From TrEMBL:
<dbReference type="InterPro" id="IPR005288">
    <property type="entry name" value="NadB"/>
</dbReference>
<comment type="similarity">
    <text>Belongs to the FAD-dependent oxidoreductase 2 family. NadB subfamily.</text>
</comment>
<keyword id="KW-0662">Pyridine nucleotide biosynthesis</keyword>
<dbReference type="Pfam" id="PF00890">
    <property type="entry name" value="FAD_binding_2"/>
</dbReference>
<dbReference type="InterPro" id="IPR003953">
    <property type="entry name" value="FAD-dep_OxRdtase_2_FAD-bd"/>
</dbReference>
<comment type="pathway">
    <text>Cofactor biosynthesis; NAD(+) biosynthesis; iminoaspartate from L-aspartate (oxidase route): step 1/1.</text>
</comment>
<dbReference type="InterPro" id="IPR037099">
    <property type="entry name" value="Fum_R/Succ_DH_flav-like_C_sf"/>
</dbReference>
<dbReference type="InterPro" id="IPR036188">
    <property type="entry name" value="FAD/NAD-bd_sf"/>
</dbReference>
<dbReference type="GO" id="GO:0034628">
    <property type="term" value="P:'de novo' NAD+ biosynthetic process from L-aspartate"/>
</dbReference>
<dbReference type="InterPro" id="IPR027477">
    <property type="entry name" value="Succ_DH/fumarate_Rdtase_cat_sf"/>
</dbReference>
<dbReference type="GO" id="GO:0008734">
    <property type="term" value="F:L-aspartate oxidase activity"/>
</dbReference>
<keyword id="KW-0560">Oxidoreductase</keyword>
<feature type="domain" description="FAD-dependent oxidoreductase 2 FAD-binding">
    <location>
        <begin position="2"/>
        <end position="369"/>
    </location>
</feature>
<protein>
    <recommendedName>
        <fullName>L-aspartate oxidase</fullName>
        <ecNumber>1.4.3.16</ecNumber>
    </recommendedName>
</protein>
<keyword id="KW-0285">Flavoprotein</keyword>
<keyword id="KW-0274">FAD</keyword>
């Protein structure tokens, strides 16, 4: 059983053939998945002179060397093969007039290394092809319109069954010999995110409640440039590739915000840029992306950005784009070994809900679709070779109570404040105390999950990657294993 139909879940389902798979998801097809919304592409060392070790090195630098080095090397080495596999399925990656893959550049990469399809519609193009392949696969039964509600454990503590709930509220128990969670991220827990509505952390919360170990749960990536829509939780992304093509971050007076802050300037690792912009926003100032000097042909790569801006009444060829940092990606998740197994027998995880250590303390741009394809395919192929049937559950586990909307709203506001790009022991401790003091919050699944992120963030008193403590004793970040107060990291 695979829960979640983004890139990772679909790749597991496809690669598990001929073993029968039940694929559980909210909708049938790409809509509502973070994968389909991905504007960045897939990072792969396929360009002239590029090598997997260079891709791996950039991944480690972005991740503040908190990464699992073996996982990083495996990912970087597997990337060109993943592109070939997607091409064989029919993904129409963008190519130059010579037929070679066109390569774009994004933050933290030392060169152009990002493969796109349909310009900034890479996720949508890949999802279309993967969905078509799944529709044509007789071993996959796609159970759409359902969410995972509970996990059934056997007397020996192995996953044996699940309960799913359909949109009419009907609950059905189903046997599951192997359960793969590919349920995505946690952005919906915060007040501003680039994630879709379904990315609310429910899969992660359920796995933790069932006894799966979590890892690196305090590491949350804020994307620097979500479109600053005046109100609303789910903000459209303005892809980093726009900065790769020459757009610049500026303040109200047109001063370049990233100049002198980091050697890579506007293309510094995402956490560095997000902190810089967050400080400006916290000081009551606005932040803009100036893409006006992009030449007309460059805009062909950004149909999604043009459409998003048009919906907001802005023409980015002539006007500045208002941007703000927003929660984008969870580096932490269900702790998995290199094969995708959790500590709970029969429970596996892949994609954003999992944590193999590959992203370290801050994910490198365009490594997440890649992780979904590489790890999803490998996990599916492995599970496809094993047998087994589900059994009856001796014990059912759910994630916890659902809070009232008012409790949910105050929890979101508190989490956004405490787990933002700039963190302090005071706000983290205040959030932990406030949840503990409110039984409705403490018993809710969101409250429980929030504590699993807040407590390690409070305990980690030194800054590392996306976890930046303004009250750190040393008050500076650690990169490449070397403490440095360079790069404008002083709060
Ligand atoms: C982006 O296009 O800026 C996001 C890409 C990513 O999250 O890797």
């Amino acid at each position: 059983m695979v829960v979640g139909a983004g890139v990772a879940g679909l790749c597991v389902a496809l690669a598990a053939a001929p073993r029968p798979v039940i694929l559980v998801s909210r909708s049938r097809g790409p809509s509502g998945t973070a994968s389909a919304m991905a504007q960045g592409g897939i990072a792969a060392a396929v360009g002239p002179g590029d090598e997997a070790v260079c891709h791996a090195a950039d991944t480690l630098v972005a991740g503040a060397c908190h990464n699992d080095v073996g996982a990083v090397l495996d990912l970087a080495l597997s990337a060109p093969g993943a592109i070939d596999w997607l091409v064989s399925l029919g993904v129409p990656f963008d190519r130059g007039s010579n037929g070679m893959l066109s390569l774009g550049r994004e933050g933290g990469h030392d060169r152009a290394r990002i493969v796109h399809a349909g310009g900034d519609a890479t996720g949508r193009e890949i999802m279309k092809v993967l969905c078509t392949a799944v529709f044509a696969s007789s071993h996959v039964h796609w159970l759409a319109g359902n969410t995972l509600e509970a996990i059934g454990l056997s007397a020996g503590g192995r996953v044996a069954a699940v309960r799913v709930r359909d949109s009419a509220g009907r609950v059905e128990p189903l046997q599951a010999a192997d359960l793969v969670l590919a349920t995505g991220g946690i952005g919906g827990l915060f007040t501003c995110t680039t994630n879709p509505e379904g990315s609310d952390g429910a899969g992660l919360a359920l796995a933790l409640a069932a006894g799966a170990k979590g890892r690196d749960l305090e590491f949350i990536q804020w994307h620097p440039t979500a479109f600053a829509v005046p109100s609303g939780r789910h903000l459209p992304l303005i892809t980093e590739a726009l900065r790769g093509a020459g757009a610049e971050l500026v303040d109200d007076e047109g001063n370049r915000l990233m100049r002198g802050t980091h050697p890579l300037g506007d293309l510094a690792p995402r956490d560095v840029v997000a902190r810089c912009l967050w400080r400006h926003r916290q000081a009551g100032r606005r932040v803009w992306l100036d893409a006006r000097k992009l030449l007309e042909p460059a805009w062909h790569q950004f149909p999604g950005v043009l459409a998003t801006c048009a919906e907001q009444g802005i023409d980015p060829r002539r006007e500045l784009i208002p941007v703000t940092p927003a929660v984008h990606f969870h580096m932490g998740g269900i702790a998995v070994d290199p094969q995708g197994n959790s500590n709970l027998p029969g429970l596996h995880a892949v994609g954003e809900v999992a944590c193999s250590g590959v992203h370290g303390a801050n994910r490198l741009a365009s490594n997440s679709l890649l992780e979904g394809v590489v790890c999803g395919h490998a996990l599916g192929a492995r599970l496809g070779k094993s047998g087994g049937r589900g059994g009856s559950a001796a014990r059912w586990v759910d994630a916890g109570a659902v809070p009232t909307p008012a409790v949910g709203r105050s929890l979101s506001a508190m989490l956004t404040d405490a787990l933002g790009p700039l963190r302090s022991g005071r706000t983290l401790a205040a959030a932990v105390d406030a949840i503990g003091a409110d039984p409705a919050m403490a018993c809710s699944w969101q409250g429980r999950l929030a504590l699993r992120m807040l407590v390690p963030a409070l305990a980690r008193t030194r800054s590392l990657g996306a976890h930046f403590r303004v009250d750190s004793a040393a008050n500076h970040n650690i990169r490449q294993g070397i403490e440095t107060d360079a790069y404008g990291e002083i709060a």
